[in-house]
Design goal:
- Chain A: It holds the Pfam family Septin.
- Chain A: Belongs to the TRAFAC class TrmE-Era-EngA-EngB-Septin-like GTPase superfamily. Septin GTPase family.
- Chain A: It is found in: Chromosome, Centromere, Kinetochore; Cleavage furrow; Cytoplasm, Cytoskeleton, Cilium axoneme; Cytoplasm, Cytoskeleton, Spindle.
- Chain A: Its main location: nucleus.
- The complex is a heterodimer of chains A (about 425) and B (about 325).
- In chain A, about 55% of the residues lie in helices and about 15% in strands.
- Chain A has nine helices and nine strands.
- The radius of gyration of chain A is 51 Å and the shape is rod-shaped.
- By secondary structure, chain B is an alpha/beta fold.
- In chain B, strand 7 (about 250-255) and strand 8 (about 255-265) form a beta hairpin.
- Chain B has ten helices and nine strands.
- Chain B has a six-stranded mixed beta sheet, with helices on both faces.
- In chain B, about 35% of the residues are buried.
- In chain B, helix 8 (about 280-290) packs across helix 9.
- In chain B, about 40% of the residues lie in helices and about 15% in strands.
- The chains are: A alpha/beta (about 425), B alpha/beta (about 325).
- Chains A and B meet through helix 4, helix 5, strand 8 and strand 9 of A and helix 5, strand 8 and strand 9 of B.
Chain lengths: ~425, ~325
């Protein structure tokens, strides 16, 4: 595309300023994770980097801390009107046990859970507030043995280089002389390449000046750092450093260690790039992996066999939603049916018992009637008998009378 | 001379106060006789170094004996990968000083504490120590014994503690707990130029307390102090242990003198300067004053414990295969 020349001043050159002002109002977030064995100076380095006492002297050392695998501390730093919400994720107990198999698992789980949170909040309907708590950068501390990487270092970096920006650091670098440091760095880089570990790559830019800086940084990887917040007087200058009987190791002296390079890189030049890489590369990797898994499950549930789902994940989600709603409806209907059936049953039962009662009633009535009849019958019989008896009595009476009359007649008149 | 002999007869036995001799007998020449004998026969010393790789074990041993005696003497580059299991590699040299010959054996333990899963990484070491005891026992029990039994028993085990500055690791505690009864353990804080003097003091105190809490008796053990003099000497040493050491076999120029040290951008760490590190103290302790004591404690106490256990368990000694040795690990 050809670039057109403008005839006058339009004004969109102030766009960066607008973006800047908006961002400043919003404030920035940055999440940094530090991983390494106890005693490598992680807490001291964080304090030195951000010039705060995030881990103050009263903060209990690893021997006293409650054994949790992942710890978060938040601090709000303000400088020149810009505020930064800094979250430090610490991993106490990493690599300290006798058996350290899978000590990286809690860390991987933590990173994944942060991605998951972001994915969920991205997919929500109400997206007003999207707090970004994803891990933007992981500082991995290598012990200054002077030989090379330990098996634990290699395992850890291999498992995490695809999930987060890994920046390896040589801790407590004042242990090494400059030659030893050089050798050590070369050995580490060789091993990193050998195991195909992808550490954070500094991006190339169009700017010559910046490229030179970037190249300088790349030559010094992995950065050898020394941390300290104690101020010491050296040549009537007040510097941060560590006081030894044989001299003072200055933290901010680039001849002594690479602390300034780390600080500049992390805070002053590449903070935004770290966030971008996390968002565009690591997060997208996680997202596509996660949603592809959902899609795979979707194919199984659909009866459409051999149909590779070419729908976009959103359509897939729609379909799922519809399915879900349909399922719900079906369930509702079923439940209603069941309900009706039960009601019928109950009604039937009631009817039955009513009929039963009726029947019994009838029965009893019949019985009663029968009894009544019986009694009537008996009465009749009784009446009959009485009648008979009466009749008989009369007859007897008559007979008796007749015989008496006869006798009377006999007496009266001799029989004619 | 007669008077001297009389005094001896009057006092039967040796009294601790001693009796004043009225003339010179020459008992004290026995020290000279022993010395001559020792010089002729020479003696063995076996030292074992234990610790995860990269703590400067080989460098320290080279510095201690001022010569390239360790395994890693050939070049600095690390060509060998970390072994998957703990290996035991021993290297022997004969060094001579002032007419006294010493057969020095350094036993290295590469792979200790380097794996992801370090369970039971102390077992190969324990097995090795017991195997050496077993060898000696077998020789002792033989009907025809050699005039001088070759002594391969581990006299001293230098355990290297990484200078985290916080506390002992679980692995350290486990190892020392299990092995403090079969070998003399001397804990040292490796690469102590990592820490400032205050950090070092705090770390040492914490380490000592943890060792005490876990009942770990490191050398010199309190229970083996012979007398008050020993006790006071050893107490002083125990106060400064574990020694914070720095090793180096390179020489640099300091104030017109050539000293062994490490050159950093902010200064030169002199290995033998007691203000910088405690290497000189360790060396004096280990070689100049307690070398013989280490051997004696190993022979009289650790070896005897092993022997008693073996004899009790078996009810007598029969030819044993190495499998049995493994089972009898204390």
């Amino acid at each position: 595309m050809q670039q057109k020349n403008l005839d006058g001043y339009v004004g969109f050159a102030s766009l960066p300023n607008q973006v800047y002002r908006k961002s400043v109002k919003r404030g920035f977030e940055f999440t940094l994770m530090v991983v390494g064995e106890s005693g490598l100076g992680k807490s001291t380095l964080i304090n030195s980097l951000f010039l705060t006492d995030l881990y103050s002297a009263e903060y209990p050392g690893p021997s006293h801390r409650i054994k949790k695998t992942v710890e978060q501390s938040k601090v709000l730093i303000k400088e020149g009107g810009v505020q930064l919400l800094l979250t430090i994720v610490d991993t106490p107990g990493f690599g300290d046990a006798v058996d350290n198999s899978n000590c990286w698992q809690p860390i991987i789980d933590h990173i994944d859970s942060k991605f998951e949170d972001y994915l969920n909040s991205e997919s929500r309907v109400n997206r007003r507030q999207m707090p970004d708590s994803r891990i933007h950068c992981c500082l991995y501390f290598i012990a200054p043995s002077g030989h090379g990487l330990k098996p634990l270092d290699i395992e850890f970096m291999k498992r995490l280089h695809e999930k987060v920006n890994v920046i390896p650091l040589i801790a407590k670098a004042d242990t090494l002389t400059p030659e030893e440091c050089q050798q050590f760095k070369k050995q580490i880089m060789r091993e990193i390449q050998e195991h195909k570990i992808k550490i954070y790559e500094f991006p190339e830019t169009d700017d010559e000046e910046e490229n030179r800086l970037v190249k300088k940084i790349k030559d010094k990887l992995p950065l050898a750092v020394v941390g300290s917040n104690t101020i010491i007087e050296v040549n009537s200058k007040r510097v941060r450093g560590r006081q030894y009987p044989w001299g003072v190791a200055e933290v901010e002296n680039s001849d002594h260690c690479d602390f300034t390079i780390l600080r500049d890189m992390l805070i002053r030049t590449h903070m935004q790039d770290l966030k971008d890489v996390t968002n565009n590369v690591h997060y997208e990797n996680y997202r596509s992996r996660k949603l592809a898994a959902v899609t795979y499950n979707g194919v199984d549930n659909n009866k459409a066999k051999g149909q590779l789902s070419t729908k976009s994940p959103l359509a897939q989600m729609e379909e799922e939603r519809r399915e879900h709603v349909a399922k719900m409806k079906k369930m509702e209907m079923e439940m209603e049916q069941v309900f009706e059936m039960k009601v019928k049953e109950k009604v039937q039962k009631l009817k039955d018992s009513e009929a039963e009662l009726q029947r019994r009633h009838e029965q009893m009535k019949k019985n009663l009637e029968a009894q009544h009849k019986e009694l009537e019958e008996k009465r009749r019989v009784f009446e009959e008998e009485r009648a008979n008896w009466e009749t008989q009595q009369r007859l007897e009476q008559q007979k008796l009378e007749a015989s008496r009359t006869l006798e009377k007649n006999k007496k009266k008149g001799k029989i004619f | 001379k007669n008077k001297g002999l009389q005094v001896l007869k009057a006092n039967s036995g040796f009294s601790s106060g001693g009796s004043t001799l009225l003339g010179y007998i020459g008992i004290d020449t026995i020290i000279e006789q022993m010395r001559k004998k020792t010089m002729k026969t020479g003696f063995d010393f076996n030292i074992m170094v234990v610790g995860p790789s990269g703590l400067g074990k080989s460098t320290l041993v080279n510095t201690l004996f001022k010569s390239q005696v360790s395994r890693k003497s050939a070049g600095w580059a690390r060509d060998e990968k970390i072994p998957k299991t703990v290996e035991i590699k021993s290297v022997s040299h004969v060094i001579e000083e002032g007419g006294v010959k010493m057969k020095l054996t350094i036993v290295d333990t590469p792979g200790f504490g380097d794996q992801i899963n370090n369970d039971n990484c102390w077992e190969p070491i324990s097995k090795y120590i017991n195997e050496q005891f077993e060898k000696f026992l077998k020789e002792e029990v033989n009907i025809t014994r050699k005039k001088r039994i070759p002594d391969t028993r581990v006299h001293c085990c230098l355990y290297f503690i990484p200078p985290t500055g916080h506390c002992l690791r679980q692995l350290d505690v486990e190892f020392m707990r299990r092995l403090s009864h079969s070998v003399n353990i001397i804990p040292v804080i490796a690469k102590s130029d990592t820490m400032t003097i205050e950090e070092r003091q705090e770390f040492k105190q914490r380490v000592r307390k943890e060792l005490e809490n876990n009942g770990i008796e490191f050398y010199p053990q309190k229970e083996f102090d012979d007398d008050m003099e020993d006790k006071s000497d050893n107490d002083k040493i125990r106060e400064t242990m574990p020694f914070a050491v720095v090793g180096s076999d390179k020489e640099h120029q300091v104030n017109g003198k050539r000293v062994l040290g490490r050159k950093t951008a902010w200064g030169i760490i002199e290995v033998e300067n007691p203000n910088h590190c405690e290497f000189a103290q360790l060396r004096d302790f280990l070689i100049r004053s307690h070398l013989q004591d280490l051997k004696e404690v190993t022979h009289n106490i650790h070896y005897e414990t092993y022997r008693a256990k073996r004899l009790n368990d078996n009810g007598g000694l029969h030819p044993i295969s190495s499998n049995d040795t493994q089972e009898k690990n204390p």
